[in-house]
Structure formats: structure tokens, C-alpha cells
Amino acid sequence: MGVESLAKSLNADWSSIWNAAKESDAQRNRLKGIVDREKIDSSDISVVVFGSLARREWTSGSDLDWTLLIDGEADHEHANTAHRLRSVLEEEKFQNPGATETFGTLTFSHDLVHQIGGLDDSNRNTTRRLLMLLESMPASRRDAYGRVVRGILRRYLENDYRDFRLKVPRFLLNDFHRYWRTICVDYASKYRDQAAKKWGLRNVKLRLSRKLIFAAGVLSCFRCDPGWIAIDAPDLAKTPDVDGLVEYMEKLIGQTPLDIIASVLEKFGDKTAAGHIFNSYNDFLEKLDNPSIRKHLEKLKPENAKDDSIFQEMMVLSESFELGLERLFFDNDAMDLLTKKYGVF
Amino acid sequence: MSPRIGFSTGALAYSDFRTGLRMLVERNVPVVELSALRDRELQPLVESLDSLPLSGFSYISFHAPSSLTHLREIDVVTLLRSLIPRRWPIIVHPDIISDFSLWSSLGSLLCIENMDKRKPIGRTVAELEPVFQKLPEATFCFDIGHARQIDPTMSEASRLLKQFANRLQEVHMSEVGSNSKHEGMSFTAVSAFQKVSHLIPASVPIVLESVIPEEKIEQEIRLALSALHKAASAA
């Protein structure tokens, strides 16, 4: 189950999605080679990538969002290792992450696992934690990465005053919702702080790739519904426990967001929704892979957007994408119930 | 003087010391530590020594079992005493010693190793000093990976090397993560080791305990040279 299988069932050719996936695998292999050659990771350190590379949506202008994830004893040498990695990646012509310093530096496991909510859960910490679940993968060694992902999931899945039972994990779902709304609010904040720099590209990404990971996160939570687990993981349904649910979720979120959505669409056989979502996303990736379109969107001023044909084409794609998601979440009985029960209140 | 660098057979091939030796002999590696980390491996290894291809090594040491489950302490020491004529340093974890008088019979061949965080004793200068007081002739095997795990600032490593400089017999080198497993060295570990490498005389043999596949032996030796601040050239 996944995008390829969905495409086969619909006889669709989403060539830009395939190209992006193929290029992502090539870039990841290149990155793995660098990390291995430079001996950057260990059992306590993983190089974790986020963004388009983790989603297998690498296009020609993609930058590399990475962090040096530390799950071990504090060691002042870690900073030097991050400097070393940054410098090698520059030499190897990988494009640096954005200016917020959320990526391209150190991340410590303790904050990700312990600081969920509360005053110390900064915007940056929330972003790093949720992206670990929504779009991340280790560049090479996964020891530290796997432990941290499981640690985060366990925090969300066993935090309840009642005995453990299978259910849609509201704690995690609420944090996915919170993160999505944070992205939307930060979009407005960046618009103001950065004087609308790269506004067009940011706007389009918000409507498509950012929304995609939110939808995949919500679906992953819905798939913890006992009725769903009874079909997908009968052993877990028979003897439910938190370890089993962590393992189940780890496998789920280990897929790309597109695969998560495709597998649900396949399950419900909604060809119209699948067409809306994947045709538009395929076209979005095709356009993003075109350097002149990407550059055009980066330079586009908000006041010119209304009459800009490229931006308007992207709006049409984003509306089709949105329509597909609405069909998926509201226009079939099983999903509609879950969306009503958990989606808003 | 170029540092002499080699491997523990246990790191390369666990209890299969013949395979570990074969890997080193094929590469003309000058240093080997014969490893019998599990006590049931001790007797077979001791009984095989005359048949092993050891003539090409300029430095050989012997790692005693790290825990006793099948043999009594006296049985282990008796087997180790049979090694005395070979004059090989015998590396011993201090936490397996109960009867110090038994072990003192190994004299200056007894080489005490500093421990990782799992062990209740032998991790620091303060914990090793009483051991050496009871075993005054014993030498010191400095495990730099263990020392870094105990204190990533390398301050304790520096203290160990200074305090026991006149006992220093051999160095164990590898990455030791928070899970206490020995593995191939990372950039972070190499950078940390470089901080105390000036305290390790070039004459002291380096035994790598990195658990790595055979094809990475040369690479690991180059990393060790780099950790020692020496020009990168494989042994």
C-alpha cells in the first residue's frame, strides 16, 4: 500500500512524484556516503534529515534541512562535529537550511522527549519534535534516531490517567493540530519579519507540502482507532499495550506523508479524492522542479500575485489538493465520523 | 617513533580468535590482544596458544575474562599463571578481583584496566588507586573509550594518564557509546581523544577494540593514528 500501488490501481502516471523520489534516494545515498566517510554519527548521534529529502520529494532547488541529533551524554565536542558536518555539506554543494537555526545545528533528545507543552516547549522545540514524527529520516545510523522517535511516541501514547487502551491518541493529535496552526501563524509572522521575502514560494508550500504533512499526521492518529487497528494489526488489537502501539505508530510514521495518504485512499477506494490530491501534488512537484518557476515564486511580490499566471496556476493546484483532502476527510462514513469526533473539538 | 597499533581478536571475531588473528596476520598488523572475555573461552585459548601464528607480532597481550560464571577465581588465575613464561601483559578488569593475593602472583604482568560506567569500581583515579595499592606491581591498561564515557570532557582521562603514567602498559581505543558497546570511532570520539594524546608516549602499544567488519580494519587504524595526532598512514 502506498503511492505506487495507488497509481497502479488508478492507472495514473505521477512522473514528477517518481522523479522526486528517485532523486531523493540518490541525494540520500550521497549524504550517507558523506556522513559515513566523515564518521559523523555513532550509537549516540544520528544525522537526521527533514523536509523534501525525508518526504522523498527532492527537487532541483531543494535545500537540506538536517540536524545532529544527540541522544547520549553531553559532550562539548558535539558542537565541533556539527561544525564539521556543516562545512563538509557546504563543500559538497548541499544548500544550507533556512535562517531560523531550527536546522543545521545540534538537537538534544531530552528536550524533544521531555518538553512537550508547557513554558519550555519553544516554537523551535515543537517544530523539531513534530517534524521528527511527520517528515524525518536518519541519513545513516538510526540508533539514536530510533530511540528518540520511540521516546517521543511513548510520551504521547502512554500519557493518560486511565489504564492503557487503544484509541485515537488525542495528545498527539492535538499537537499535530497545534503544530499546523503554528506553521500557519508563523507564515504570517515571517511575512512581516522578512518583508515578504520568498513569500510566493512559502505561500505555495504552506498550501501543499505543509498541509500534506499535517493531513498525514492526522491520518496516522486516526489509524489508532480500535476499529482500524482490528483490521490492520489484529495481534495488537487482541493484546493491546503501549509497546505494541508505539511499534505500530513507528511503522506508520516511518512512511512518507504521500504513502500514508495513498494507503488510506486505497483503503477507501476514493478515486476522485485520489485524483485531486495526487494529480495536483504531482503537478506541484513538477513546477517546483523547474528552476525558473521556483525563482519566479521566490521573487514574486504579494501585490503582484493576483495577476501572476504562475502563482494563479499554483493556486488552482492547491485548491484541487484541498478539495481532495476535504473529500477524504468528510465524504466517506468512516473518516467523517473520526473527523467530526476528533478533528475540531 | 610511529605508534604500534593493532586489534583485539575479540573486537574482530568475538570468541573466534583464529579468525581474528588471520585478519591481522594478512595485514601485517604488529599488535594483537588475544581475547578470552567470557570465562568459558579461556581454557581453549590457552591450550591453543602454541598452534597460533603469533611470530609476526611485535607486541602481544592477553585479555582475561571480564566476568566469572563458569570458572572460579582460582581456576582463572591458575590458567593465567601458565602464561607467565611468555611475558605477555595480562589485562584484567578490577571488578572480577576478590582475592588480591591470588592475582598478585602475576606480578608486573598483571595489567589493570579502567572501567566503563556499568562497573561499580575502577572507573576513575579515585577508584583505581586502592586497587593499585593492593597490587603494587601491576601495570595500567588505559581504555580511552571508557574514560571518555565516564567524563566526555576528558578531564578524568587526563587524570588517569598523569596519575598512572609510570604504570602505563597499553592503551585500548574505540568508541564507547552510552550503551557501553565498543564500536568504530566517530569524528566526535577522535576529536576527544586528541585532547589527551600528548599524554600517551609513542612507545605504548594501542589495541583497538572497535567492533568493525574486516574491510574497515585499515580505516580504523588510520582513525587511531589521527586520534594520536600522527600522520595518517595505515599500519
How do you describe this structure in short?
With 345 residues, chain A is mainly alpha-helical. Chain A is built from 17 helices and 4 strands. Chain A is globular.
What key phrases describe this protein's structure?
heterodimer, A: 345 residues, mainly alpha, four-stranded mixed sheet, 66% helix, globular, B: 235 residues, alpha/beta, two-stranded antiparallel ribbon, disordered C terminus
Q: Explain this structure to me?
A:
The complex is a heterodimer of chains A (345) and B (235). Chain A has helices spanning 3-10, 15-37, 51-55, 77-91, 109-114, 123-134, 143-157, 170-193, 199-222, 226-232, 234-238, 242-253, 257-268, 271-288, 291-299, 309-330, 333-342; strands at 45-50, 66-70, 105-108, 136-138. The radius of gyration of chain A is 20 Å and the shape is globular. Chain A has one domain (3-342). Chain A has 345 residues and is mainly alpha-helical. The two termini of chain A are 31 Å apart. Chain A has a 4-stranded mixed beta sheet. By secondary structure, chain B is an alpha/beta fold. Chain B has helices at residues 9-13, 17-26, 42-48, 73-81, 100-104, 125-134, 144-150, 155-163, 187-194, 217-227, and strands spanning 5-8, 31-35, 59-63, 90-92, 110-113, 139-143, 168-173, 175-176, 182-183, 206-208. In chain B, β2 (31-35), α3 and β3 form a beta-alpha-beta unit. In chain B, α9 runs parallel beside α10. The longest helix of chain B is centred in the C-terminal third of the chain and has 11 residues, at 217-227. The two termini of chain B are 13 Å apart. The model of chain B is unreliable at 231-235 (pLDDT under 50).
